[in-house]
Amino acid sequence: MAATALPPLPPQFKSIQHHLRTAQELDKREPVVAYYCRLYAMQTGMKIDSKTPECRKFLSKLMDQLEAMKKQFGDNEAITQDIVGSAHVENYALKMFLYADNEDRAGQFHKNMIKSFYTASLLIDVLTVFGELSEENAQHRKYARWKAAYIHNCLKNGESPQPGPIGMEGESFDVEREETESSSLHSGTAQPTSSSTHEANNKAASNYTGIHIPPGAHAPANTPAEVPHNTGVTSNTIQPSPQNIPLVDPSLYSAQSAGTRLITANLLL
Questions:
Q1: Between the CA atoms of 89, 93, 94 and 98, what dihedral angle is there, to the nearest 10 degrees?
Q2: Which residues contact 89 (CB under 8 A, 6 or more apart)?
Q3: pLDDT by residue (tens digit) across 122-163?
Q4: Region 61-65: what's the mean pLDDT?
C-alpha cells in the first residue's frame, strides 16, 4: 500500500480524481491494479499541468507513492513487465464489466452494479498506459460508462431501466453532484430529463449505436468478490468460479518494456 499521503487535489486534476480513488480502494485487495491507476493519474496529470507549484507538489508526492509501490512489489512481474501488467489490469476491468453486464441482463439493477460498470470504464482508461486501446476495449468503455449513467438516471427518477444494450443518447455523468447526493455511490450522473430517459427506454434493443456486447463477451468467467450485493431479490445469473490469469511465457518478451517506467523526477524540475 502506498504510504505517502497526497496533498489536496488541484482543481486542474479533477479528471483523474476517480482513478486515484479507485487506487485507494484497491490498495489492499488488488495492489497491482492500484499501482497502474496511480501511474495513469501521474501520466495524465503531467499532460494537464506540471508547471504550477500546486500541481508540481501533487505530482511529486504521487511519484513518491509510485516509487514506494514499485519497491514493495518489485518482484511482481505484473509491475515489472508491461505485457503481464496489461493482462492483469484488463482481466480485472473485464471482470467488473462482466459482473455488471450479467446483473443488467438479468434485470438486477442496484448501486453495486452501477459502480461496477463505471469502475470498469475507469480501469479501461488505465489500460492506455500500455498503449492505444483496442477497438473492442474502447467500445466496452463507452458502453460501461453510458450504462452506468442510464441505469442510475432511471432509478433516480423512479423508472424501470431496460436490460441489455439499447440506444446510448442523452445520458452523461455529473460525478460531483451525485457524490453530494449519495455517499454510497462511487460516481454518479447528471440530472436527467424524464423525456431523455423515456426515449432511451423505448428504443429497440437492435437500434443501439453500433456497439454489440453479448453476455460476458471476452470477459473472464469470474465475479468480483468485492462487489457483492444484497437487494433482497435472488438473481438467476450464474456466478462461475474464479480463474487465475495464465502465466506469460518469458520468451514472449526479451527485455522489460519501457511503456510503464515511472516518469523521472527531472520532468518535474
A1: 150
A2: 32, 33, 36, 123, 126, 127, 130
A3: 999 999 999 999 999 999 999 999 999 999 999 999 999 999
A4: 96
The per-residue pLDDT for 5 is: 87
**Range list of H helices, the chain:** 17-26, 31-48, 53-72, 77-80, 82-105, 111-126, 135-156, 175-181, 194-201
Q: Which residues contact 17 (CB under 8 A, 6 or more apart)?
A: 9
| Count of other CB atoms within 10 angstroms of residue 165 | 22
Sign of the C-alpha dihedral, residues 233, 239, 244, 246?
Answer: negative
Phi, psi dihedrals of residue 4, rounded to the nearest 5°: -70, 125
| b/e per residue 197-235 (b: at least 16 CB within 10 A) | beebeebeeeebeeeebeebeebbebbbeebebeeeeee
Residue with cell 428504443: 203
Cβ-count burial 62-89 (b if 16+ within 10 Å, e if not): bbbbbeebbeebeebbbbbbbbbbbbbb
Q: At what angle do helices 31-48 and 111-126 cross, to 10 degrees?
A: 60
Q: What does the pLDDT look like over 165-207, one tens digit per residue? A: 876 554 554 444 444 443 333 433 333 333 333 333 333 333 3
Instruction: Name residue 265's amino acid.
Output: A
Q: How far is residue 115's CA from residue 205's CA, in Å, rounded to a whole number?
A: 23
* One-letter amino acid of 237: T
pTM score, whole prediction: 0.67
